Structures
1.
Amino acid sequence: MKKSLTRRNMLKTSTAAIGAVAGAGLLKGFPAIHAADAPVIRYLGTAVNMGDAVQKRLFDDTGIKVKFIVKTTDEVVKTIFTQPNSFDIVDSEYFSMPKLVPSGNLLGMDTKRIKEWDNVTSAFTKGEVAGKKIGDQGTAPKKVMYLKGAKSKEFASEPTQYVTLIPTVYNADTLGIRPDLIKRPISSWAELLNPEFKGKASILNIPSIGIMDAAMVVEAMGEYKYPDKGNMTKEEIDLTMKIFTEAKKAGQFRAFWSDFNESVNLMASGEVVIQSMWSPAITAVRTKGIPCVYQPLKEGYRAWAAGFGLPSTTKGRQADICYEFINWYLSGWVGAYLNRQGYYSAVIPTAKKYMEAYEWDYWMMGKPATADIMSPEGKKLASKGEVRDGGSYEARMGGVACWNATMDENKYMVRKWNEMIAS
Amino acid sequence: MMKFLKLKPNVGLLSIPYSLIFIFFFFIPLTLTFIISFWDYNEYSIIPDFIFENYAYIFKDCLNFEKDICVTFKTYLSTFIFCFITWFFTLIIGFFVAYFLAFYVNSITWQIVLFLLCTIPFWTSNVIRMISWIPLLGRNGLVNDFLLSTGLADAPQEWLLYSGFSIVLAFVHLYTLFMIVPIFNSMMRIDKSIIEAAYDNGANGLQILWNVIIPLCKPGIVIGSIFVITVVMGDFITIGIMGGQQIPSIGKIIYVEMSYLQLPAAAANAVILLALTLLIIWIMTKMIDIRKEL
């Protein structure tokens, strides 16, 4: 009897342990409380560029608190569709707009309520940098910026008072490399599929972004010239995926990555020497003291842009608080914070006020650093004398070839991408 | 007997909470999944309908034997292979660990301590575990360093990581516990006098193991196998991370479809996965009547 009782206890303990393991993943977030005196904003986004410093500064300046709801790019979009009242403000990418706007779940943003609207960079509003047109293949922000009205589900081709998102941050992405392991100059997207790097290359496994990197590679190899990389036909998708499937079967890729941290580890460990990468991942590898270059390539950059949107049910005081938050966001301190991470702020003049002259020269002007360059967390990113990869703002943003995109054949593309992964 | 009868209405009442949980969190969601698998969809919404397009697409090209094997069959085939290999190793290892715990460790305290040791793989998050495999199995990892320095290999072995090997390794590492617990449970229920009787009748250790212990552990083995097989069939995180996202899994296909809001397509895939998994479990329960054995 005693034996069986203790065995019972024994089993209880071990079952509880398994139960705890299984349940650990389920306990996530609960709704924020809107107290009348201490406004809290539920901020839905990837939040890769946000840190505790932002929350603290925001509270000191405005008394507003932010509660982050952190999700991946694709999940942010899904949340807007399926739980449009679970957040107060969303940080989304422009390439999601062709999907999101027809759903009517987002409010047209009133530009009259944005103090710095006239200072928003022309890369967003006109598709120009320093007066010159930049590449607009894919879902360039200017194509999906304006709405026909506050509640409209249609894009306007001419500037209007209402916009889909208030722009916040953007960047020009390219391939990341390990110069110490490659030991020769890299200048073309075609190098991603160069057999020299067999088993040491990687691409990201997020179809909507991966396909754009793939298209840059295919075009650089001279295999095909797309009329619009950001809106491929079925035949073009087949062709692109065929080239990548063959490379995959030949063992070109060490791994695919879908999580920011995976890309950092692949690169830092030397498993991969050339891959699609995002700017903060490069920074993360570098702060470990490992050389890593965000290599400018002659075919140009793949750009992306993000901004703030509000759910269509927003009104009254809640709207006031959100607009106050956005105005604070664009007033310069965050802009400088973003610029120091290697992104670009949507309102450049205000960001400049919060940056030291040597920082401005390094990040924006492409001049050699006159002092060590620090990240917002105080870690060293570059030594005195180094120049930013890709150079100045005008050189980098001016070199944009295409934008992250939602294609008309999106459904087909996702299926083909899955087939490549399975091949 | 009378006492038992008096209790009967209460037994009915007691089953209500569980029935409610079962209906709300199992039956209704599953029914909805099944219904939605016949719906149509576009970029941003799902449209009530009754179409077979979602299923037809899954098996598109699958009956065309001139072309390469279709994605669906290929994915299931690879999943079945992982299932089998993982099941085989977790069974062998799990059985002997349970055997050791049940018959060689006599103190209950030590049994608990050793059991907790088996749960260590679950103490860290998936991401941490993934990262920790790289310094061990990676190109510049400990294993490769050892192979190179001892001259056992003259180039880094790349198949150690992001391969079928690393996936099976991670599965076995994680899920052996699911085998150990039910088999251990079965073993503890074996009446020691049966083993003594076998011994007295002249059976040797191996004969006792094969003719007495294994048959009596069958329920534990089947329950453990069901755990392991269902978990591996639906897994996409371990296959994704350890396979470098280059090896397909049904779970991953469903995940990608969900994140692009292709919910009916994902539902159709989920229904097929569920049907296949249930089929496997049904076959296993044919081998042994779990209800009777419990």
2.
Amino acid sequence: MTTTAPLLNVAGLCIEFRTGDAVVRANADVSFTLTAGRTLGVVGESGSGKSVLCRSLLGLIPSPPGFVTAGSVRFEGGELLGLDEAGLRRVRGTAIAMIFQNPMSGLNPVWPVGDQISEGLRVHRGLASRDARARAVALMQQVGIPSPEKRYDEYPHQWSGGMLQRAMIAMAMACEPRLLLADEPTTALDATIQDQILALLVELQERTGMAMILVSHDMAVIAETSDEVAVMYAGRIVELASTAAVFRAPRHPYTLGLLGSIPRNTGDTRLRPIPGQPPNLVELGPGCSFADRCVFTSAECRVTPAALRPVGPAHLSACLFPERMTAASA
Amino acid sequence: MAILEYIVGRILQMVPVLFGVSLVAFLCIHLVPGDPVQIMMHGRATPEVLATVRAELGLDQPLPEQYLRFIGGAIVGDLGKSIIQKAPVNEIIGERLGPSLFLLVYSAVLAVLFALPLAVVAALRAERLIDHSIRILGVVGFAMPPFWIGLLLMVLFGLVLNWFPISGYGDSFVEHLWHLFLPSVTIAVFLAPLLVQSLRSAMLDVMTADYIEVARAKGLSRRRIVVKHVLRNAAIPVVTVLAVNIGWLLGGAVIVEYVFAFPGLGSLLVRAVGFRDYPVIQGLTLVFAVIVMIINLLADLSYMAIDRRVLRR
């Protein structure tokens, strides 16, 4: 098997938010690589740093209050961190595109939907209005928007949430990105629409060969779409492995907790919620930040820094004592 | 067609308002305690003269009949005769309507031209030095009495530099622009800070919207985002502020009119009130009301042009 150079290489990324005297470490030492055509699922609770991670790749974090304090983000061999606005603009929407959680507020209410889909083509590709329109109509067709020629001139308030998310996807796909960042793309949608949107994303990925980072708080969504999973907790990746490995044999108690909270319609097992609340990111102690909620915790967990390290073949975990989990399940 | 329906609907809504306004304008002559004719004549007229004037004004008729005559006249443009000037009210008002509207539109255009760049800079550099400076400038402009600004401008640009005339209206469009420059600037200095504040805060509001982040993620330039995606959305509250204040300035520009010896409706109103020239007051009330309604209609049409969600009921 030939090794291909990774499309994206994130190393030691640290992001802080500073408000007044408080410093929040939204991302702490985040590292991962992503190969072209693959999907990385990023999963975690609200406030775990998933969305910040996505936004930082495109330089979309407002500064102040957000600051990238360390790390590197290499995309196709070039460093993205520290690029100026002009440099970022050449990446945004062309090489890397992003879709967002709430399609209902993601489109500008005063412009027609089609105009917003073709805007990127006019700006980045220099297409004339008529060509951009034709291309946008084709894109709308591809993402499953019915009678796109007619709907091109309609306004966002005339569309349903599911259709708007399709429009957002068409907008992101306009300039054929090599990497698509999908930040909770189905969270705001009805369950039936969720599946359609995920299926659409997978289909587009197969057709175009783009890579994808799919952020979700929902393990089921990740299972359906991702090749690899990064589990985030309190700004850190606490487990990183192939989706199969994570679902078969999780090596971090937090991942185990997330898996326990997926509803299944087989058997009569009750949902097992993770007890407690995520920690306050302003007041993190030196040890493992999950220690307070962990069923396997011990005194050492609160004082020993827990870094991500190999616990198996291509399987990383930040748990200090992953063997306790295997012992418990055996 | 939804757009046509909206416009027709808005115009039809004006009919009952117009009726109410005409009733108020009509009744204002009867709100005077005692005999309006006595008061108009300053109590120095013989009973014969009073009777003649009363008959001339139709005040000897029953009230409903008086109203019908008033409204019937107003529809065909007959607003009665001025007691003081002995001329038809519609001619007296008509003479000054053009200059007043010119001044109003000119001031509004200048105010927008002043306010737009200042508001954009203030919003893009919010809470920085330049933003605070613009705010202080606005407070100063808004707080200085218009007659004082008018006099300062007059002394500097009219008398010392001799660039602009200090009074009059001129005969052609270009001359109007030239003659009304200083009075319009005076009004714009008062109006612009209101527009700057509302546009700045509306822009700051819009800039936190999700669709602005989407626009940034699309790789659009800052300039394009501000011009295409922010300003249009932020324009709606500004149109409201502008419409409200223009309506008010129609009669409220009277001080500026006096300072620049300008023949406008504001000074006409003040004079008519002074002389208790009720037909003129009535006529002006009606004309002001109609103009304010037209301004509101234009504002509504602008909302529709800016944001199609207005059409959704």
3.
Amino acid sequence: MNAGRASGDRLERFAVTPARKRRDSTARAVMLGATIIALIPLVLIVYYLLRKGLGSWSSSFFTTDPTGNTFFKSSSIGGIKSAILGTIEIVALASAMAIPVGLGVAVWLVEYGKDSRLAQAVRFFVDVLTGVPSILFGLFIYIVLIVGTGSSYAGYKGSLALALLMLPVVTRATEVILQLVPGALREAALALGAPRWRVILRVVLPTALPGMITGVLLAVARAAGETAPLLFTAAATLKTNFNLGQFMNSLPVQIYSDVTSPTTAVVNRAWGAALALVAMILLLNVIARLISRRSRLA
Amino acid sequence: MEAASISGGERRVLLRSPLARLPDQALRYGLTALAVLILALIVYFFIRLVGEAGPAFAKFGVFGFAFGNNWNVSAEHFGALPLLVGTLITSALALLIGVPVAVATAVYATELCPRRLRGPLTVLVELLAAVPSVVYGLWGIFFLAPKLQPAEQWLADRLSFIPFIGGGVVTIPNYFITGLVLAIMILPIVSAISREVMATVPSDQKEAALGLGATRWEMIRMAVLPYCRSGIVGGSMLGLGRAIGETIAVTILIGDAPQLGSHLFGQGYSLAASIANEFGEAQGLHRSALFAAGLVLFVLTLLVNGIARALVLRAARAGSAQADAGAGGGGGGGQRIAETVAGA
């Protein structure tokens, strides 16, 4: 009897008292509140982008080049054709350079380097590259290709800066996916007598393909939104240009130069361009996520 | 005897001719060369950057440049203290505002919210990372800053007794608004890494806490948060690295005034902003000074990212070690975190 009551007392001390309950529900409310606060900026940004951006969209907005940033020509400031085409050209060339190299390094890390000293050093330096501020890639290309050669800005130089930015992202994302390919698959192919390079090309890469495409698309989306590396490499121009050896306009640079304008119409053009840019990037993100669903790894 | 000779013969069949082995060698050494190329690239970059920054460092000295409080383009005098301070203040603000919200979001998404909401919530927070820097700048300067200015002025007036924080006139571009927008920008990466680290907490540890009678919050506080501490700190440092290197949004929002702001709600400058803003017209010593500012920025981000990665890796390793010990196999935690670090 006595013993029973004593243990009951002891249990009472562990009961959920009103104070503990209150603390629990307060903490839950705070977490929920913080989550809502985190989502408010997203809602506001999307709302203002749509409101201001859609207002400046028209059919001529996408089919005309921007005219100068001048104060007087506010009635005919033109559209963003050269900026859209420039972004597509620059990012396409950057992808063409960064994806094969990044993929190659990732394959080397997983299939050959593994945990060797050199591989660890390469991994470390790839991580270092991930953390380098994007404007420094622009400075680097400026030093090497503009100071170094004495020539001027060009689209392909902007592409190179973006490629440097994409390289570590592509490498790390694809490396993680390649590591998920089961070792048994490789061993089975090797045991059947396939040489190493065929195992990589015919077994490892196809298995990892959906996941790799996701990583690559996210890297492309990130590069498409970058302004800083393009400022001193591809610069800005108004005219549509299909020659990557010349000055080239791009959406982020166009927005950046329009933000500082005192003319309302030019600022509205920046909103329209921003909406177009965000739409492009979101599209890439959505495609990336849809493809990642098809991956059988992970 | 016979058996041995047969197997010997088969082995000869399996042996490839030197010609057939060629693609293998080519692939192997080609890829190795690529990997070494990356190493060489960074070293070359660093050397060239130091070379270009040389004249500025020679004229003002490394410390005189980094901590001199005078950035005067027309007088050709370059001390980067106002830039350095602007970078540090805005990044610190970003952490102060962004990290609590990001961690709370991660806790809510992993432990509290209904299972069905988890996916959409994660995607929504990650969408913040998809918005380009220049769009944050555009939105910040034309929407957020004007809308918040009265509130900032009210706050500055109430806090006028604290030096460097309150008092003075609130300008539309200022340190505070820059820090606030940076906080929004680092939120997705800090939240994503916190979420991944929280996912590595062994569920028996959490169930043990609940089984002993802990409330949900007590379980989070005692079983989840201590376990994730180094991962969360590492994620925050990665966010700090992002904030320090952020260029375009800061250039638009900080005001680009090349002196120390008198208070938190005044205009200032940052390392990255000075480069973006002045490099186009810079010549001679000025350009060298901007390269030097870039070098300071580079070293700063290297330090911060180095510490961050060490912490995140340690957390990931601890997570997968626990998973191995507990369930036998696993180790997916570390890999997922690595992927998050790369992708975000």
4.
Amino acid sequence: MNDWHIDAGLLGEYERGELDPSRAMAVEAHMQACPPCRSSIRVDFTWLTGNWSVVYDHVHAPKAGPGHRLLRRLGLPEHRIRLLTATPALRWSWLAATVTVLGLAVAAAWLLRSGAGGAVLATSFLILAPVLPVVAVSGAYGPPADPMHEITGTTPSAGPALVLWRAISVIGVAMTMAATAGVLLPGPGWFAVAWLLPALLLCTGTLALATALALPVAAATLGGLWLAGVLAASRLVHGEPFLSVVFGPTAQLGYLAAAVAAAAVLILRRRRFDLGASR
Amino acid sequence: MPPVSEQSSDADLLRAIAAGQTAALRLLHHRHAGWLRARLRRRCADPDVVDAAIQDTFVAVWKDAHRFAETTADPAAWLWTIAVRRLVSALRGPAHRWLSGPAADVPDDARTVPSAEELVLLGVEHGALGPALDRLSPELRRLIEATALDGLTVREAAQLLGIPEGTAKTRLMRARTRLRQLLA
């Protein structure tokens, strides 16, 4: 029976749907078993390449990395995950820089542990650690840091939501790294956590201030204020009292209250986020 | 893994696809997309759904080429089984499901129906089966087609035709009885 094949006329009728149902079934059954008859079906090449390009794109779609899977495990929606993991080019240089700075601080503190230098270094860690997340936030959005800003700014997701999502992601990473460094640092145990509330205040403060100023300007202002204030305090009181003044319980309460106030300002004025345009 | 060409057999192509060669997938797609499309279009009037089912099929082939059992199945029949099931699952979704569905419906080795061709062809070309099938009412004939020719289960056939499974079972029974009467 293999001498029976589909001829051009029959094939044409099949493709136009003019065949009796039973004969169409016969054509299909034969086609499945006979490669030459299968290939005799005419295919529109434009359609074929178009169809193939979709398959190709899908086959070459980037695979979800470990970070992507972790975020998905945490229950974030897919588009947020894409947003948080979409800029791998900048991520590594920034991570490496922060790790290096903190690593050097910890290493130097251990080397100089015996002398007075260790205390100075530990103190400078406490002072600088709150500024790190702020630096990270200042680069999270806006024209100087983000080369894609012109394009980002035209998308519907631009604005407060995007600033906050990016800020949260960089603050999260910076805080984790600084906390690790704080634990590794020699000195009293509370060193490891004493900088957290100042950092919280500086971050929310920066974001709150960004409703009035450009983000980098806001970050520079608050970071500068913090450094200037702490340095001024170190001029007035020396040694152990200095630490208890700047990082003691009273001061911590003050930081918390200020951070709450900043968060309130941020929520009230969230619609007025500076979107990187110069005012 | 030797490079593949236009002359490679389907089984060679599938082996190359399992080894991660995109060129082999392209050759397989260009070789089979045409007849799959012609055949799927007789079962679904929406060309977009048919195109998506074909794309879905080859994405599934890319992921599951290693599950193709060379010894027991014919590549074309395997492809058809995947394609028609993809069409069914595309029609089943609340909105049409496009790419990236779970590949759960790829059979380990396709239930090829080696007797189907001979049975239908012999019967239609030389026997009484052709007229009998033509005299069957369309909804009964479509069920026979979906189960005997397309290799679908009754449940899948019901989904393809958009009828409840129970209805499909009754109709299939009626179709068989009627065929028997007509052939007697």
